[in-house]
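Before a colleague's protein record goes any further, I have to sign it off. Thanks in advance; the entry in question is below:
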Amino acid sequence: MPNLRTTKLGIIGAGAVGTSLAYAALIRGAADELAIYDLNPARAEAQVLDLAHGTPFAHRTKVTGGGDLSFLAASDVIVVTAGAAQLPGQSRLDLVNTNAEIIRDLMPRLVKQSPDAIYMIVTNPVDVLTEVAADVAGLRRGQVIGSGTTLDTSRLRWLVAEAAGVAPRDVHSMILGEHGDSAFPLWSNATIGGSPIREWADESGTKIFDDAKLDELANQAVLSAYSIIAGKGATNYAIGLACVRLVEAILRDEHMVTPVSTVLRDYEGLDGIALSVPCVIGAGGVQRVLRVPMNQTEHDAFHRSGSALRAVLEEIGQL
């Protein structure tokens, strides 16, 4: 019988995010093999063993890992979650210098192990680090992506769905820009079940999404991470699930449309920085960057995100 091609997902970091991602991938059967690397070999090996013990109840997945990067050889997708953790009250951009150095050291060594892999950056500040990773990796465009505002978008869809009384899958809205305080919703083309969000009404016919309500939902979506971090120290489950969906889209060549962070080329007047915009995700990573209409308010918000990121990149000598 011919050998069937197997898929391999590599994960950098055996902390809360990396193991939540691994656990979600195991349950969903996202890849045939999971390989976990951590600077602390004992922690990585313990996580591998714990996950492997659950495979009789999940998909048939080989789980390996430890403190050697060779475990990640021949990976199809490598997700980078390792880095200094965000502390309560600390912005994502405060993390930049420490984590940029980690990425600069790590990426060339990873590329030696898996030159054809798609690299997904999750470590914060994700947009800055996506730009750094793409620069030092020297890979083709689209091969390095950041999880970006995929999670912010998920948070927004859930919040809108709760307010509207519908399933989140029937809410079509996106958050673009920085994965951080300057992120913004694309309300101008948001819909619920095909109806423009501003036209959505409750059973009495009263429209419920006025400017004040939309501003409230946007703030909750963008800032919710801070309350989660204050309460339990990290956000991990939702980002784990979000990243697994991106991994599935890549490994299954789904051509899924979602906002991810990618280095932009003349997009709404911005060039050479990584921000989240709608992209087609499939085999090869970012297959296409989509250009979506923005009203003037959204255009201005997009440029504010760009200015915030550009300032940080200049500070660390990346631009």
About this structure: The chain has a mean pLDDT of 93. DSSP finds eight helices and 14 strands in the chain.
